[in-house]
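Handout for the seminar on molecular recognition.
Each group receives one record of this type.
Step one: identify the two inputs.
Step two: read the structure output and locate the region that could contact iron/sulfur cluster.
Step three: write two sentences on what you found, then compare them with the reference statements printed after the record.
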Amino acid sequence: MQQEIKKLAGQRKAIILAHNYQPPQIQDIADLCGDSLELSRKAAQTDAEVIVFCGVHFMAETASILSPDKKVLLPRQDAGCLMADMITAECLKAKIDDLPPMPVVTYVNSTAEVKALSTICCTSANVVQVVNTLDSNEMLLTPDRNLAMYAASQTGKKIHIWDGYCPTHEWLKPEDVQKAKAAHPNAIFIAHPECRPEILQLADSIASTSGMLRMAAKSDADEFIVGTENGLLYPLQKANPGKTFYPASEKMICKNMKKISLSDVLHCLESLEGEVKVDEKIRRPALKAVERMLETI
Ligand code: 13P
Ligand code: SF4
């Protein structure tokens, strides 16, 4: 099936993008695997006619915001993001009306409608730089409270928090990390900024998924405890066969990231069904926020 997919993708002039949390067999057929920032850059630059996005809905939406003339396909329409669902445009409008005027920084893990109300977007790879780029010392950062607290701790700026979070990362507790550290005393603990602040305090390094891949390749350490969705263990182990990676908790699995199968990818290339398209009225302001992020970083 992998060969069939590659052949059909060539005929359709399609590129297959996969997030680092996708199942191994999906990562193996992708033209590019990456974190949210790398995938949005690629979606903006590719000359393919079709983008098959193996990830979750907001990622396909971001690709469509950046490449409105391309057909962006999400092989499973029900692959959503629980954090992105924790904020709506209506609630954000009400919050903006409540606060004095200030920039709104929105994590890409959000809907196009929410991006459209925002000053600038960020990802876990560039949140600190995005916050530092803004002239203002006060801002609202949505929807991830953990990412917002992390950005505040790194920049010293006053950041108003939206009470959203990623359940997969929120599940990780200090006891889990302590248990893993006791079992693997020589391992370095790497954590994603979607984890709780008390977890980040225990981390030797904090990074996006691709940041973790770069860090593990460069590091002199041989063992790592990985504080993010467990799908990342596959590319970590594949790129570093001489090193060992342990999940910080077996529970760190995002069900939405595991929905897409090879037959879903094949079906979507055959039928060209599953298009994700953003209405122009929403796309234009959302594009400004995404482009501003891509231009500054
Ligand atoms: P990054 O790969 O950008 O670090 O994103 C993590 C994530 O939770 C995506 O859903
Ligand atoms: Fe959303 Fe968390 Fe799943 Fe990423 S891992 S898609 S932030 S629920």
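Reference statements: DSSP finds 15 helices and twelve strands in the chain. The chain has three domains: 2-80+257-277, 84-165+284-296, 172-251.
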